[in-house]
Write a structure and sequence with these properties.
Strand order of the largest sheet: 1-2
Oligomer: single chain
Distance between the termini: 38 Å
Shape: globular
Order of helices and strands: HHEHEH
Structural class: mainly alpha
Low-confidence stretches: 93-98
Length: 98
């Protein structure tokens, strides 16, 4: 039980501060396949439905996608974190609008 709680705390620390752990992005190898399927075009958009904390959007940004990203999240606590990610992305000039 204690081990599981510690794992949850570590997960939350990483997810809530993912900007400090850019080497973990993209968080799934499937994103590399997305580069083959999706066009990297600033005129096209990416929809991140159920964006949670914005990890997927950050994965796309890290891979160099220049598409505008629309991230939707209904959970207010996750949305607040998503807003922080959006501000950070804009201030660090990733080259992608989120």
């Amino acid at each position: 039980m204690v081990k599981r709680t510690l794992e949850n705390i570590i997960d939350l620390l990483i997810y809530n501060n993912i900007h400090l752990f850019k080497f973990l992005l993209p968080h799934e190898k499937d994103y590399y396949g997305m580069r083959l399927v999706c066009k990297n075009n600033p005129k096209d958009i990416i929809l991140d439905i159920g964006a949670s904390l914005g990890i997927s959007s950050l994965g796309f940004i890290k891979l160099g996608f220049e598409n505008k990203i629309y991230a939707f999240e209904p959970n207010i606590k996750n949305f607040q974190q998503l807003e922080k990610v959006k501000t950070r992305v804009s201030s660090e000039k990733y080259g992608t609008k989120m």
